[in-house]
Amino acid sequence: MTETCARTDCEANAEGQCVRQVLVANQLGLHARPASQIAREAQAFAASITLVGQGQSVDAKSILDVLTLAAGPGSTIEIRASGDDAAMAVEKISQLFAARFGEK
Amino acid sequence: MAKAIVRGISVSTGFAIGKAVFVNRRHHAEVPRQSIAPALMDGEEARLRQAFAAVETELEAARDRIPAELSEHRHILESHLMILKDPKLCGAAARFVREVGVNAEWALEKAVAELEKAFGQLDDMYIRERLQDVRVMSDRVMARLLGTVRTELAVEGRVIIMAHDLTPADTVMLEVGKIMGFATAQGGKTSHTGIMARTLGIPALVGAGELEEAVNDGDLVIIDGVGGRVLVDPDEDELAEFNELADQFEDYQRRIYRGCQLPAETIDGYRVQVLANIELIEEVAAVLDNGGEGIGLYRTEYSYLNRTDLPGEDELADKYSDLAAIMSPRKVIFRTLDLGADKFIASFGALDEANPAMGLRAIRFCMQHPELFKTQLKAIARASAFGNVSLMFPMISGLREVRRAKAKLREAQEELRAEGKRFNPDMPVGIMIELPAAVMMASMLAEEVDFFSIGTNDLIQYSLGIDRTNAHVSYLYQPLHPAVLRSIKHVVDAAHQAGIEASLCGEVASDPFCVPILMGMQIDCISLSPQAIPGIKRIIRQARMSECKLLLRDVLACRTVGKINRLVRDTIFHKYPEELNFFASLLDNDDLGG
After folding, report:
1. What's the predicted TM-score (pTM) here?
2. Residue A72 in contact with residue A29, Cβ under 8 Å?
């Protein structure tokens, strides 16, 4: 997958960050396993990545931070990233949400 | 007199005398706050990061040493490593060093305190409890910083391992050959420490709350695994007494062990199947060594606990098939998930229930999570192709529930057939009889299934309406209560009338006072912890069915539990005087009055 293909699907906000809204569609919400998947994925990018939900903004690279979002099933999360590989980071992390973190 | 006596819960019987060695302690000391001059900050931050790195290396090494069959432990260590590397812990502490200009210890405390604040506000109990993992990790780093860490356990001579709590990470680092016993301040009946100790055949106590206050490193201690006590700095008389007890115990074990591979048959030729309850596949060795004729209860929860994700069908099927194949042609009875009450899957969290023992647990929980349930049913069915596998459903209350559970099983089997995976279509299916409702319905339920397994721990609790973990009413926990005995007999009779087997699992099955009565009822099969098998087999081999029947008749003629207990005690003591010194009987907490 190339940088540009992800970019087309990505909106930029006023601060020039890549942003995308995702739905917590898995049964369990952002519990430990999804949180650790997000953190692991996020750590692979240089971009700074935050997750925003219910007025709270957390560092996607921190499993502990993601856990404290305590985002339940059905809630909406905004992924924001800035930096060179921001678009790719947003794409990759959205994919985790879309795949429901591998839950069947 | 010993300097102190600390009480705990015995999870493995026996006696041990040795030197106390603490693997870890709760971190008590106030952490000193020191200001760090700007010029020294680099050094201080480096010291902090080195401590984190050292713990990380240690955990990675531990993880890599874990044998494949203990893969559950690997999950725990993986998630601990993830926390250790988390920017919110190490990164935040490093930031405090710089921004506040403080020492690494204080900065770490502050980082943990911030996390405690953030987690403390969450409604989700499961997530809130992840804080435990953060503490476990920060304690290790703190010990490094303070220089109180034991890098190498200098284990010399006979030692008794003590800890605030023993984690799998701690136990894989121990050199097991020199350990005489365990004692931990935390932990309950089902903790990892108990499984480990029983496997090693050494005594262990958990939940000994005052351990850390009462014992210092190097103290001479006695672990009394029968009485559930730690004697700190015992006097000469106590030492002599326990040395003698330890010798007798060893001698007794050697004797019962010698006959443990013989069939459990009474003098007059009545045969009882003696099976084992297990939780981990590694316990199979203990089952076979102790003369277990099969597995009467495989508790399948362990694969779901202490991890953050759910096991998949293939993972479970591999594990289950291994167990079936190793035990083949001996029987293995898989109990489907009995979660809820005191055991929760991490990914579902604990439910907010006022009365969890009567809440969404066991079969009820599974029926609410059909996908989770089907995954397990398919895995068990797949294992049935590799050995003598049976399946049973826990907490059944009536016909509809059995029929629905069986329909789920058929659905799982259909899927396997469509996927071209092998299974035994005739796998026996049974139910646990644990609820008074199931007792009353026994003759009808018997038409639906291939066997009954009476789970006495829950049956006693639900029949007598007492929570055995509640100290105010635990005196009412009476396995030989006339109502309990009548319930068990009713179920056994109903099973036999329908031509199916009745087996029994629960602590009653390993109580030498209770087993002869069960035999009088002509129970087909009992299932107990592997380590209890040799003793119980020996009791059965010395018994006569005719005497057991007489005992049952007399017992059923008694109207109070006090009378029953007295009668049983007199009879059993008369028959097996020497056996009983090393058994802690369930009858011990009764009042012999009423």
Report:
1. 0.64
2. yes
